[in-house]
Design brief:
Length: about 550
């Protein structure tokens, strides 16, 4: 029997703990002017540039992190991931989002079957649906072409496509310019009811996106959408055939709901929900930016997959980003992480990442079920940087909380011919302003008021202590390719962290109990059945039922 050594007892781990202790006495400003250190801590992968030199680490710490990665067999774990080994041990399946990005001529045998042809068949189905809608051949019940597509999904069946559609608004091809893509996720119905008021049933198409096809949030929105359609055309079969597409791993459940076979697109159990935007869950992206741009996103992600599986650890962008994440969260005990894009097109990216990182790595047991004795995933949140400067940066600069940040920005912007010369010039200046702010903020977070040569007579309420670590990630430009690479970079960062922490990033058991209890609560809310409850819940329920009874 092999002897199990907890991570925290590995010599590489203890070495880093010692380094972290020593780092407590170092301010980032002590490291900030070392050119050689800067050079050693800046990296490139194709159109992505990574600067981790504003992190509280040096070459010996980075080497120590790489040695830890080797000690926990990260290179083998990466090969296991991309080759289809059962990396999701609690659900006994592989996690093959990387396969979704393999080119047609690739091949990957899983359970004695090459899965690449199936993946490309599904892409071909997506393409044919996209073509029919873009060429106005997909008609609603009255014979008019579809003008509005509503994606109904939640979590991974919403955030990935929503994020990418927001990010790529400048890549809409002419054939898609008249098509509007909308997203509805929330169970309370607000988004849907607001939206339905602006749409025409005869020209609206719903995509019901759900890996499991059991998620009540999605099914309740889909049910309301169906009722809205039926009010205009009381012929369920016709409405289903012309106005509902289903995307799921569960064909029987889609069929039971009424989605005709022709309107179903399937994907596979081995695609995790939060990793599914590359599958048919990405249909809204393809509808928004065209299939060629969607494929370019896949190519960008595939480029990053190759970096991840082939580059040495110390030169490997996702590995480096993951190691820095572990260094901050576990060794420096920084429990909050903010993602700050300096580009309004990436406004959904922080929300997307909050699911990707926190649903994957918000865990407290290792793969064998032992309780962990170290901190894992930090609280992750974010916002478009320039807006956040006028909102929560106060806390970053003068609060009591240590926070690590990722600054993300494209180098080039507004290069297209969409604008008049004057407008283009003005927008380019706005982009430079955004970049200047991006650089200014990470500099102040690092140096504090030493960045402005302030003196000791400055009162405390005006002082900036600095010493908040950050990473800066620059993209040559934001395009389908670079977006694909960026998203894959973070997917792999999450995996790297999970391997160091020895946790399964591909399950999410922590979200299940709330769903069960909500079912019980619904019974307590709408029926007279007695349910044993705690005092607070009982009181709130009483209040709601009492108020409803009085017609409030
Ligand atoms: O409840 C969490 C979750 O299962 C996520 O992991 C998932 O992305 C989301 O719900 C939606 O699930 P589905 O695609 O099965 O509707």
């Amino acid at each position: 029997m092999s002897h199990f050594t907890p991570r925290s007892e590995l010599p590489e781990w203890c070495f880093l703990q010692g380094k972290a202790k020593a780092m407590q006495h170092t301010h980032l400003r002590d490291l900030a002017y070392d050119q050689a250190r800067n050079q050693a801590l800046t990296f490139q992968a194709g159109p992505l540039f990574l600067d981790i030199s504003k992190q509280k680490l040096d070459a010996s710490i980075l080497n120590g992190l790489v040695r830890l990665a080797e000690a926990v067999k990260l290179p083998q774990a990466i090969q296991d991931l991309v080759s289809g080994a059962v990396v999701n041990n609690t659900e006994n399946r592989p996690a093959l989002h990387t396969a979704l990005r393999l080119p047609k001529e690739g091949s990957l045998i899983v359970n004695d079957k090459d899965i690449v042809p199936d993946i490309h068949e599904s892409l071909a189905r997506m393409r044919s649906i996209v073509d029919r809608i873009h060429s106005r051949q997909w008609r609603g019940f009255s014979g008019r072409a579809i003008t509005d597509v509503v994606n109904i999904g939640v979590g991974g069946s919403d955030l990935g496509p929503y994020m990418a559609c927001q990010a790529l608004t400048e890549f809409v091809p002419p054939e898609a310019s008249q098509l509007h893509i909308h997203f509805v996720s929330s169970i309370d119905g607000t988004q849907l009811s607001d939206l339905l008021g602006t749409l025409k049933p005869e020209t609206t198409l719903f995509i019901v996106s759900s890996k499991s096809f059991t998620t009540i949030d999605t099914l309740s929105n889909a049910h309301t959408a169906m009722q809205w359609m039926l009010k205009s055309k009381n012929d369920k079969q016709l409405v289903l055939a012309h106005h509902f597409i289903g995307v799921s791993t569960q064909p029987q459940k889609m069929t039971a709901w009424g989605i005709p076979d022709n309107n179903q697109i399937l994907f596979w159990e081995w695609v995790g929900g939060r990793f599914s935007l590359w599958s048919a869950i990405g249909l809204p992206i393809a509808l928004k930016v065209g299939m060629a741009n969607f494929e370019s996103m896949l190519a960008g992600a595939h480029f990053m997959d190759n970096e991840f599986s082939q580059k040495p650890l110390a030169q490997n962008l996702p590995v480096l980003l993951g190691l820095v994440g572990v260094w901050n969260a576990t060794f420096l005990d920084i429990r909050a992480h903010s993602v700050l894009p300096y580009d309004g097109r990436l406004k959904v990216f922080p929300s997307y990442l909050s699911q990707l990182e926190m649903e994957s790595n918000g865990k407290s047991v290792d793969k064998e079920g032992h309780l962990l004795d170290y901190h894992t995933c930090p609280v992750l949140w974010g916002e478009v940087g320039p807006n956040a400067q006028h909102a929560f940066y106060q806390l970053l600069h003068q609060g009591t909380q240590a926070v690590s940040c990722d600054f993300i920005a494209p180098i080039q912007r507004y290069t297209g011919s969409l604008y008049s010369d004057e407008a283009k010039k003005s927008l380019q200046i706005q982009h430079q302003l955004a970049l200047a702010n991006c650089l200014a903020q990470s500099r102040v977070l690092m140096l504090g008021d030493a960045s402005a040569n302030s003196d000791d007579s400055t009162p405390n309420f005006k002082r900036y202590r600095g010493n908040q670590p950050s990473t800066t990630l620059l993209l040559e430009e934001l395009s389908p390719f670079t977006l694909g690479a960026l998203v894959a970079l973070y997917e792999h960062k999450v995996f790297v962290m999970s391997v160091i922490w020895d946790i399964n990033p591909f399950d999410q058991w922590g979200v299940e109990l709330g769903k069960k209890i909500a079912d019980k609560m619904m019974i307590a809310l709408v029926s007279d059945e007695k349910v044993a409850l705690d005092a607070s819940t009982q009181g709130l329920l009483h209040l709601i039922r009492h108020a409803e009874g009085e017609g409030i």
